[in-house]
């Protein structure tokens, strides 16, 4: 391999590395704290869950489900799940930036979530 090709490949690799997010920096995520038998969780599952992955909001904050019947994941140890389920917490870079307590129905859910995402700088469609 010629020196010019090797140099070009090294520069290309450096450019790709700089374009990737730094390790430890994460986009926002929507954490849904739920438990078995939760009627409002089931309603969310029926009304929002089937379409959420296709929305701009999911691009800004992918949905992550956490069962409160199991130990909290280590990366969420600083987040209080609250007493009610479901509780939706928007987490960015390991910190809570907003929450929705309970499921307010499909007419209000996206409006509340958009307010949180916009206030955090995680505008739907951009993360």
TrEMBL record:
Presence of keyword Signal: yes
Signal peptide stretch: 1-27
Entry-linked InterPro entries: Thioredoxin-like_sf
Gene3D superfamilies listed in its UniProt record: Glutaredoxin
Highest taxon in the source lineage: Bacteria
Annotated keywords: Signal
Name of the protein described by the UniProt record: Thioredoxin
